[in-house]
Amino acid sequence: MERNRTGHGMKIAFRQTAIGRIGIGERAGEITNLFFEGYAVPEDAEIRETDILREAFRQLEAWLAGELREFSLPLDPDGTPFMKQVWGRLQEIPCGSTATYGAIAAASGNPGAARAVGMACNRNPIPLFIPCHRVVGSGGRLTGFRGGLPLKERLLELERLHSAGAAPFPS
Questions:
Q1: Do the Cβ atoms of 24 and 128 come closer than 8 Å?
Q2: Which of 85, 101, 84, 99 is nearest to 166 (CA)?
Q3: Contact at 8 Å (CB) between 140 and 97?
Q4: Domain locations in the chain?
Q5: CATH class of segment(s) 81-162
Q6: What would the CATH number be for the domain defined by 3-64?
Q7: What are the Cα distances from residue 35, in Å, to 59, 135, 171?
Q8: What is the pTM of this model?
Q9: Which sequence positions are flagged as catalytic?
Q10: Are 3-64 and 81-162 equal in CATH topology?
Q11: Which pLDDT tens digit goes with each residue over 127-151?
């Protein structure tokens, strides 16, 4: 994974998972980032596994194995108030379900903001833990995901297999 220069105080651990090599970052005991293979990680971050990073990987592995449906981690993503509102809505989408950008915009009180919701999904620094992979285009069409569309499709299928009978996101 490449390194960039924005990790002041961040600790990062890396592990091989069922979906490839993943890096998870934390500051002050809260998860701040998830890095897929090939994504730049902060150059000045300390490479060290902490208790919260061990727990994040434990939950991630349990989720990937279908043994966990919801994460219970302290999250602290960096973003605008609108982005944080959208990311909060994403966490309400049940495992095994999807929602459209338009439904998320409407649930956020701004039905005309589907494109802004898409931008918030694109800038989500903690994918998987904040499940932007559950957001699809109108008609259920798969659209962008920072881990790539094949991974998004794989994650959605994995969730469907492990979550039969999940309730849909309210529209």
A1: no
A2: 99
A3: no
A4: 3-64, 81-162
A5: mainly alpha
A6: 3.30.160.70
A7: 16, 19, 30
A8: 0.87
A9: 132
A10: no
A11: 999 999 999 988 888 888 888 899 9
